[in-house]
Every structure is written in structure tokens, then in C-alpha cells.
């Protein structure tokens, strides 16, 4: 249940015309009263003899009864209360009770003293009502409306529990502004998947991901096809900006512009500049591993992203709050950049993950920028590396990056939950679900290749690796050996050993910083950690075979699908994940 207090107005009759009218898009059906300050109030929707003028005069009567100099300049209070599409349809009686509870919570009406304001609740759709009130009480005094928004929100949470509706989380004022009903209807009429406001917010966030200065930021906005207007001081200094979609126009055929701050609190120009101010202007570009992917290739960018994200997990779990908040904000930039450069088969889920995580990237904990440079650089590398092809090293390194990102987002979810940031924790959980799906799409091919290579290892080598595993990870070895993913891990251990690494040390390092007892597939987890720690190619399709079986004995069943990261026993209870 979402209550929203609208801007105060001056004309009671004007709002009544809207509430009882057809709506801007003919969406209003059967407008009628469900409750009011007086059981005998006229209802122009159900009583043919009643008029809007009569209802307006009765609502405004207490205002007219006081001296004009004492009247509020804007005396019309307006509250809409909307249920979600998954909620059941309430009856008129239930909506009437909702209205009475809301005006009491806002201190518009006080049934106990009988000295409240006059109000009426109009229903013109199944899922919501509008409450109109005039802000002078029957005794001539004006109501105390301080914190009325917080009080009606609290009342909504109580009503959700009593009426069996979806329980929403308490907000903290850091959320982006929701699209208005007019914007939603306009998007539907134009065949848009999202409103213009949401499309612009997503595009601006992607443009800001990893950008180092105004020139680069506005260049990306221009390249994305947005219309841009800037606001400058008399000195010529840039003060702000606003953007519009070229085909989103008003009734006068003019582009509809949105200031950055109206898209999201952290998209105002001053807040974006905070990211740039912490960057080193002389910071050298990242370099890739010698003899492998070129430094600016998509796969090299994804490998560096995986390393930066791995480090960030510990900071979010154990670091100072202000520093953790900076890493969380930059994690949003990495997700935006990864979605922007993803291959077709992972693009939708990654885009939805970034869109969901946007809410989790902000809280009242002010981020201390500068510590998060590695993540911001990772976002920059992803953008400059360009789109990934989705196969070979590109596809495998994408799976590796998503695997690491999943656990950073999960750590973010737990961080917000500890701080009582319910909306942000829920948004992080939603983003993690999208990352699970993206991981499965990205990992199926590279893990399948490793699985087949592991099945072809000769028996003596496989037995030696089994002994090594039991010695290095005695508490996890039997679980790993029982998993289908063991063969992919065996191939990875063989690759690491051939590259000159000590597999036992690598295995110990891989589990040291992150627990694994609750993972459904420990072997899948360790594959990516070992390949990252040993700097092995993420894609092993062209790797040399180590002790492989030749001939008919090499024929084995197809590789199983990869286990989604984070499918852990007891996860819903809020337990540790990985």
C-alpha cells in the first residue's frame, strides 16, 4: 500500500473535477465516495441530484467561515493511496476504513474530539482512492501536519498487515522518485517497456559509470542520443543539467526534460562530481596479463573486475561504514557497466540486476569516496573494453565476474539488513536473483568444457588430485568429490599445476577468506577462485590436455548445468552465503 501526499492546491473544485472526471487517459471508472467527514455528504458519482459544486461548498465551508487574512494560501490537501497489482481488490467498505485511518493518522480529522477538517475519499479505480481535505478545522483552527507523510506511511504498514496485503518496507527518503500515473499511462500508450523517467535514469547511470570528468560524462550522454540542457552561473561555471528522450514530448510537441536530481538523488551534478573528485587524474590505465588478452579487451576488463570485486567483498563485510557505502555505490557502477557491455544471452538479466540494485546503492550512510577507486576503475575498464562476444574467453571471464559480483551484492544485502535499511536490502536481494540467472547463462559453456576435460583425465592423475584435495581441504573434500562439478575443478587444478602453482596453497587461499559450508556446489565456486588466483584463462577450451584418456573410454555424459551461485541451504534465514 503506497500513500502519497500530493502538492497542496488552491481550488477544491478543480481537484473534484479531476477525481470525478474521466481521467487524463480515460482511465477513471465509476467515480464515487467511499467515506467522508459526514455520512450525509453528497456523492455526485452515485446521486444524480448531487453536484460537484455542492460537495465543494461543503468542503470549503470552514475555510469561508474565517477571515480571509487567516485562510491558508493553499488550503487543499490531497492524498492518494494505491495497492500493488498483486494485492487483492478491496471492497468499498475496506477502502472507506483505509481513508478514515489515513486522515486520522495525518491529523486531518480527529473523530474523538469532532474538531477535524472536512474531507472526502473518492474511488475511481479498483486499486486506489484519493482523499481530498480542506485545511481549516470545524473550530476554525488549522491542523498540525508536521510529519504527516511519515505518519500515513506508518499507518499503511499497519493496514497491510491487517488486510493481508503485500508488506512493503519502510522508506528512508533516499529512493528515486517514482514515475507518476500520467508517466506510466504515457509509456503504455507509446509502447514503452519503462517510463521516460526510468529510461533516462538508467541511461544517465550508465553514462556516469566509471566516467572521470564532465566532458566524458556529457559525451556519453550525447552518444546515447539524449537531449541535454545545462544550467550555468553568470561566471560560466556549470551548475546543473537536465536530459530528455528525443521522442518524449509534451502536448506542445516540446521535449520533456528531467533534471539529474529528479531522476535519482545521486545523479545530481554535485553528487556525480563527488565520484570524480576522488579519482587520480594521472592514474595509469589498467593492464592485462602478459601473453593473454590485450589490456583493453572485454575479457581482460572482466578479469580485473573479478579481482576488484573480490577485494571489495571483505571491505563491505568488515570495513568502516562510510568506506563500505562507497564500495556499494561503486558496485552499482560496475553493474551498470557490465550490463552495458554484456552479450545478448546475459544482457537482459544483467540489465535488470543493475536496475534493481540502483535502490541498494544509496542510503543515509554518506559514502567516503576515494577508497573505491579500484571498483570505479573496473567500471571504466568495462566500458572502454567494449561489448563482450559471449563466448570463449569473453564468455568465461563474464561468468567469473558475475560469480564474484553475486557475492558482493549478497554482502551488500547483509550490510543493509544490519543497518535496518529494509528497502535497500530487498533491492540487493532482487539484484542477486537476476545475477543468478545471468550466471547460469554465462557459465554453462565454459564449465561444460572444463567438465569434459576433467572427465578425460587419466585415473592416476585424478587419484593424485583426490589425495591432494583431501589433504588441502579435509572438511570439504568429500562434499566436493560427490559433486558433478568436481571434474571441472580437477581440470582447473591440473591447469594450475601445469602453470607452476602449488594447487594445495591455491585451494587453501581460495577458502580462507570466504566460508563454503553452505554452498550447494563448492566445486563450481572453487573453479573461478582458482582460475582467478592462478591467473589462468577463464576459458579452457584451447588449453593443453593433462594426462587425458584416449579412445572410446573418453566418451562421457554431457556436462551438468552450472549451479547458480549462492543457492545455499538456510539462505532465507539470513545465513552466510559462501
Structure description:
With 578 residues, this protein is an alpha+beta fold. It has four domains: 2-163, BirA Bifunctional Protein, domain 2; 181-277, no CATH class; 298-443; 448-573, no CATH class. Helix content is 49%, strand content 8%. The chain has helices at 12-20, 52-64, 92-106, 148-163, 181-190, 196-208, 214-223, 260-263, 269-277, 298-318, 321-340, 344-357, 373-385, 392-419, 422-455, 459-472, 477-481, 486-498, 503-512, 522-533; strands at 2-5, 32-36, 76-82, 118-123, 128-134, 227-232, 238-244, 258-259. A five-stranded antiparallel beta sheet has the order 1-3-5-4-2, with helices on both faces. Strands 6-7-8 form a three-stranded antiparallel beta sheet. Strand 6 (227-232) and strand 7 (238-244) form a beta hairpin. It is elongated, with a radius of gyration of 29 Å. The model is unreliable at 287-292, 550-556 and 568-578 (pLDDT under 50).
Amino acid at each position: 500500500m503506497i500513500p502519497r501526499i500530493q502538492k497542496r492546491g488552491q481550488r477544491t473544485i478543480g481537484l473534484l473535477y479531476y477525481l470525478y472526471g474521466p481521467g487524463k487517459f480515460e482511465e477513471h471508472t465509476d467515480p464515487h465516495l467511499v467515506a467522508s467527514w459526514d455520512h450525509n455528504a453528497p456523492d455526485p458519482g452515485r446521486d444524480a441530484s448531487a453536484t460537484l459544486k455542492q460537495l465543494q461548498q461543503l468542503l470549503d465551508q470552514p475555510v469561508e467561515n474565517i477571515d480571509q487574512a487567516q485562510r491558508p494560501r493553499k488550503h487543499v490537501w490531497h492524498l492518494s493511496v494505491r495497492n500493488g497489482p498483486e494485492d487483492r481488490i478491496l471492497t468499498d467498505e475496506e477502502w472507506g476504513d483505509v481513508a478514515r485511518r489515513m486522515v486520522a493518522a495525518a491529523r486531518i480529522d480527529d473523530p474523538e474530539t469532532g474538531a477535524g477538517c472536512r474531507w472526502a475519499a473518492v474511488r475511481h479505480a479498483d486499486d486506489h482512492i484519493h482523499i481530498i481535505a480542506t485545511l481549516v478545522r470545524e473550530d476554525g483552527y488549522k491542523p498540525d501536519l508536521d510529519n504527516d507523510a511519515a505518519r500515513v506511511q506508518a499507518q499503511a504498514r499497519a493496514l497491510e498487515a491487517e488486510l493481508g496485503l503485500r508488506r512493503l518496507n519502510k522508506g528512508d527518503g533516499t529512493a528515486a522518485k517514482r514515475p507518476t500515473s500520467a508517466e506510466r499511462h504515457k509509456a503504455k500508450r507509446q509502447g514503452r517497456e519503462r517510463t521516460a523517467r526510468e529510461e533516462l535514469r538508467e541511461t544517465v547511470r550508465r553514462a556516469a559509470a566509471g566516467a572521470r570528468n564532465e566532458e566524458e560524462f556529457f559525451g556519453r550522454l550525447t552518444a546515447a542520443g539524449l537531449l541535454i540542457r545545462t544550467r550555468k552561473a553568470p561566471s560560466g561555471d556549470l551548475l546543473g543539467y537536465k536530459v530528455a528522450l528525443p521522442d518524449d514530448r509534451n502536448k506542445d510537441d516540446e521535449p520533456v526534460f528531467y533534471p539529474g536530481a529528479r531522476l535519482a538523488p545521486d545523479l545530481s551534478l554535485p553528487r556525480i562530481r563527488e565520484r570524480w573528485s576522488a579519482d587520480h587524474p594521472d592514474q595509469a590505465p589498467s593492464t592485462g596479463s602478459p601473453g593473454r588478452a590485450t589490456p583493453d579487451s572485454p575479457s581482460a576488463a572482466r578479469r580485473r573486475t573479478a579481482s576488484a570485486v573480490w577485494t571489495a567483498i571483505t571491505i563491505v563485510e568488515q570495513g568502516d561504514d562510510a568506506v563500505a557505502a562507497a564500495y556499494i555505490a561503486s558496485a552499482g557502477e560496475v553493474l551498470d557497466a557490465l550490463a552495458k557491455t554484456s552479450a545478448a544471452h546475459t544482457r537482459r538479466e544483467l540489465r535488470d540486476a543493475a536496475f534493481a540494485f540502483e535502490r541498494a546503492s544509496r542510503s543515509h550512510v554518506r559514502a567516503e569516496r576515494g577508497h573505491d577507486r579500484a571498483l570505479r576503475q573496473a567500471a571504466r575498464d568495462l566500458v572502454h573494453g567494449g561489448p563482450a562476444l559471449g563466448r570463449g574467453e569473453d564468455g568465461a571471464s563474464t561468468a567469473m565476474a558475475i560469480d564474484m559480483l553475486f557475492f558482493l551484492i549478497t554482502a551488500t544485502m547483509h550490510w543493509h539488513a544490519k543497518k535496518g535499511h529494509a528497502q535497500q536490502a530487498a533491492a540487493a536481494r532482487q539484484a542477486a536473483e537476476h545475477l543468478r540467472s545471468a550466471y547460469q547463462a554465462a557459465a554453462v559453456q565454459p564449465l561444460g568444457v572444463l567438465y569434459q576435460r576433467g572427465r578425460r583425465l587419466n585415473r592416476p592423475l585424478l587419484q593424485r588430485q583426490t589425495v591432494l584435495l583431501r589433504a588441502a581441504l579435509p572438511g570439504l573434500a568429500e562434499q566436493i568429490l560427490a559433486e558433478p562439478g568436481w571434474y571441472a575443478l580437477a581440470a582447473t587444478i591440473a591447469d594450475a599445476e601445469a602453470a607452476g602453482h602449488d594447487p594445495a596453497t591455491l585451494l587453501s587461499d581460495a577458502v580462507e577468506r570466504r566460508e563454503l559450508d553452505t554452498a550447494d556446489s563448492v566445486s563450481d565456486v572453487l573453479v573461478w577462485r582458482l582460475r582467478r588466483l592462478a591467473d589462468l584463462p577463464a576459458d579452457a577450451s584451447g588449453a593443453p590436455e593433462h594426462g587425458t584418456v584416449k579412445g572410446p573410454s573418453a566418451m562421457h555424459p554431457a556436462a551438468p548445468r552450472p549451479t547458480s551461485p549462492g543457492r545455499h541451504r538456510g539462505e532465507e534465514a539470513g545465513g552466510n552465503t559462501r
